[in-house]
Amino acid sequence: MSFPLEKQEKMKSYKITLLPGDGIGPEITNVTHKILELVSRKFGFELKFKEMPFGGSAIETDGIPFPDKTLQECKNSDAILLAAIGDPKYDQLPREKRPETGLLKLRSSLDLFANIRPVKIIPSLTKASSLKEEFVNEVDLIVVRELTSGIYFGEPKGRIKTERGERAFNTMSYTSEEVKRIAEIAFKLAKQRNKKVCSVDKANVLDVSQLWREETILVSNDFKEIELSHQYVDNAAMQLVRNPSQFDVILTSNLFGDILSDIAAMLTGSIGMLPSASLTKDGPGVFEPVHGSAPDIAGKDIANPIAMLLSAAMMLKIAFNETNAGNYLENAINEILNEGYRTSDLIITETGKQVSCSKMGELIAEKLK
Ligand code: IPM
Ligand code: MN
């Protein structure tokens, strides 16, 4: 016997805090917002968006880069979708008032210790890479960057006046527990992929890296099927441009991951293509493009919205478990690229069909109807 009324499922609904931020942020957010509406309609779930001030724009409206009301909204949501923050005009402000400080506070307040930055070559874009095609066409790696500790957050730090002028210092510090929890993320990811983890450190010089290496080896004992290797960060930077397809999962600390993920980004042709997810144990994650706010091209409608769209796809899959919807969006993006459409950052031959940021959004939207 069936009970049709009881069987009727409530439509799934997810709360997203949108942080458009600065520079090109609002333009790419606009595109992403519209596309997500289409995807949710197509796949039968509801998305509730709430836009909040963050970064430079929050400095303008609220006097600080990360107002408490924004933090509260973030905590109450299922996921946070962030575009980009920062503008040179805030460089003169005291550090605690700068947009970047707001971003670091967001990361630490939500304990977003695991930053996942996938770098996968899109076949139709191999020509856009800074490297020769044959070096990049097999690249499919993930940078797993520790995001809430290391030199970004270590104490003591500061500036002091001495008899011989000023001295400034930061501390690169990790506890065993901090290394262990990020290493576990890397190994678990590798398990679903090509089963290789390369841990990047500077253990030939730094004590903190020595601990990093020891803890990583300990964690690897629980993942016998995963091949663990180690590289010093200077060598890893070289290997990323010498032979990037050797990597599967790169596990590294906050500062090294910041640098290496920018290098890895250029393998794909443009930093305008790279998405990321910043995750915690349980609680909402932040999904954001790897690129910055690009104030030099802001307001011109020429930015590439794809990194943010791919971040939205990661959000659908990781935060909401809407895997089909996420894959569908990724495929729509691939199709448009296959058809030759490019934002200006991706144009390297006259053969690409150059389109604006909003036009790129409209083309992808067509595929989702
Ligand atoms: C990144 C950015 C940030 C970082 C800046 C904006 C604080 O470069 O997310 O990679 O250094 O982590
Ligand atoms: Mn960076």
What does this structure look like?
With 369 residues, the chain is of the alpha/beta class. The chain folds into 2 domains: 12-110 and 284-369, Isopropylmalate Dehydrogenase (3-Layer(aba) Sandwich), CATH 3.40.718; 113-274, Isopropylmalate Dehydrogenase, CATH 3.40.718.10. The protein is 40% helix and 20% strand. The chain contains 13 helices and 14 strands. It has a 10-stranded mixed beta sheet with strand order 2-1-3-12-11-4-5-10-8-9, with helices on both faces. A two-stranded antiparallel sheet has the order 6-7. Strands 13-14 form a two-stranded parallel ribbon. Helix 2 crosses helix 12 (323-338) and helix 11 packs antiparallel against helix 12 (323-338). The longest helix has 19 residues, at 25-43. The protein is globular. The relative contact order is 0.16. The site of 3-isopropylmalic acid has 4 residues, from helix 5.
CATH C-level label of the largest domain: Alpha Beta
Q: What is the CA-atom radius of gyration, in angstroms?
A: 21 Å
Bound molecules: 3-isopropylmalic acid, manganese (II) ion
Please state the overall shape, judged from the principal axes of the Cα atoms.
globular
What would you give as the CATH superfamily of the largest domain?
A: Isopropylmalate Dehydrogenase
Poorly predicted segments: none
Which fold does the CATH topology of the largest domain refer to?
A: Isopropylmalate Dehydrogenase
Strand order of the largest sheet: 2-1-3-12-11-4-5-10-8-9
CATH architecture of the largest domain: 3-Layer(aba) Sandwich
From the N-terminal CA to the C-terminal CA, the straight-line distance is 37 Å
What percentage of residues falls in helices of 4 or more residues? 40-55%
Output the helix-strand order. Answer: HEHEHHEHEHEEEHEHEHEHEEHHEEH
- Number of self-contained structural domains: 2
